[in-house]
User: Which sequence fits this backbone?
């Protein structure tokens, strides 16, 4: 069986060098607690022991009215968070009546062109 080769150097995608193994002695002494600046251990003191995970639904229909109706239904069913699926023109910052939006409006998500939407 061939021996696996490993990189001679470990780096993050930002180019920071990484050790192969980290030990407790590598940690910063007196590290802040969860819920304290700079929030490296989380923004809530008890994190998910005291605050359950948000159950998100990803949804978006052709029109803002249809999407709003669906979101109200999902919230009544117990969803605790919403993520909006926008159509491609909206994601690209195009109005629904822009020539480049033709054929794509409301196709894979909700079309948002005005504040009223």
Assistant:
């Amino acid at each position: 069986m061939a021996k696996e080769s490993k990189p001679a150097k470990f780096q993050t995608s930002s180019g920071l060098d990484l050790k192969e193994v980290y030990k407790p002695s590598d940690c910063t002494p007196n590290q802040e607690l969860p819920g304290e600046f700079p929030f490296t251990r989380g923004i809530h003191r008890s994190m998910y022991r005291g605050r359950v995970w948000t159950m998100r639904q990803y949804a978006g229909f052709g029109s803002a009215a249809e999407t709003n109706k669906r979101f109200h239904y999902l919230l009544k069913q117990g969803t605790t968070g919403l993520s909006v699926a926008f159509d491609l023109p909206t994601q690209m910052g195009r109005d629904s009546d822009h020539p480049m939006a033709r054929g794509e409006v409301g196709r894979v998500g909700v079309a948002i062109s005005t504040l009223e939407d």
The two ends are 62 Å apart (CA to CA). Residues 53-117 form one domain. The chain has three helices and four strands. The first helix runs from residue 47 to 50.
